[in-house]
Amino acid sequence: MLAPTRCVGCDTRTALGVPLCNACRRTLERPAVCSLAGIPVVAAAIYRPPIQDALRRLKYASRPDLARPLARLLAEAMVQLSGTRALLAPVPVHRRRLAERGYNQAALLTRELARLGPWKSAPLLLARRHWSGAQVGRGRAERLENVRSDFVVRQARRAAGQTIIVVDDVVTTGATAYSCLLALRAAGAEVAAVAAVARAGGAPEELLAGTPFEG
Ligand SMILES: [Zn+2]
User: Fold this and answer.
1) Number of helices followed by number of strands (H, E) in the chain
2) Cα-flanking dihedrals φ and ψ of residue 43, to 5°?
């Protein structure tokens, strides 16, 4: 497979394997690592254009090819995890959503990350238990309640005693990642980090209280 030659932000040509053109890279807002229940949340960008547009196309516009360059950007932000031999567990989507979209964007990112670092992909480690419906426009409390028991560790024996990095495309309130984290801890796994291409802006301590938007 050829490396992408177009910028994920604006579709202009870039050098082979380069995910962002120079103009888009200049506008990229690199977030500080923040904490979610004591676990570092590592993200390549703040959820704003051009990465916001790229993630929306990955998710809603049938552009699974964007997973590879976006994973490259995320891998750049994961240098401090490059010595961590962890399993990468993508946040699962509900099977109804999977049927609509045809792919889980977090699983695609995970597969690409496993090619770029010392981590192993564990795409089936987590499963989503219920259909929680669209998160858009819901309040924080409702969202937290809605996802609390949504995830289950499907491969409990594989997870026990392992170091895990939870992978998602976007972390907004952190409620989804938090729910995965609780399920993994209950299964005896140690979560080393949450890795996302983008996360909501604002101060780190505001992450769990972020304003609702898709993610
Ligand atoms: Zn660009």
Assistant:
1) 8, 8
2) -135, 150
**Could you tell me the distance, in angstroms and rounded to a whole number, from the CA of residue 213 to the centre of ligand 1?**
24
The verdict on residue 146 lying in a domain is: yes
Q: From first to last of its 215 residues, what are the pLDDT tens digits of the chain?
A: 555 579 999 999 999 889 999 999 999 989 988 888 889 999 999 999 999 999 999 999 999 999 999 999 999 999 999 999 999 999 999 888 899 999 999 999 999 999 999 999 999 999 988 655 555 566 666 655 554 568 999 999 999 999 999 999 999 888 899 999 999 999 999 999 999 999 988 655 555 544 333 33
Q: How far is the CA of 7 from the centre of ligand 1 (A)?
A: 5
Q: What is the distance in A from the centroid of ligand 1 to the CA of 22?
A: 7
d(CA 69, CA 109): 9
Q: What is the Cα–Cα distance from 193 to 163, expressed in whole angstroms? A: 9
Number of domains within the chain = 1
Between the CA of 48 and the centroid of ligand 1 the distance, in Å, is 13
Residue 67 sits in a domain whose CATH number is: 3.40.50
Domain that holds residue 168: 30-209
12: in domain: no
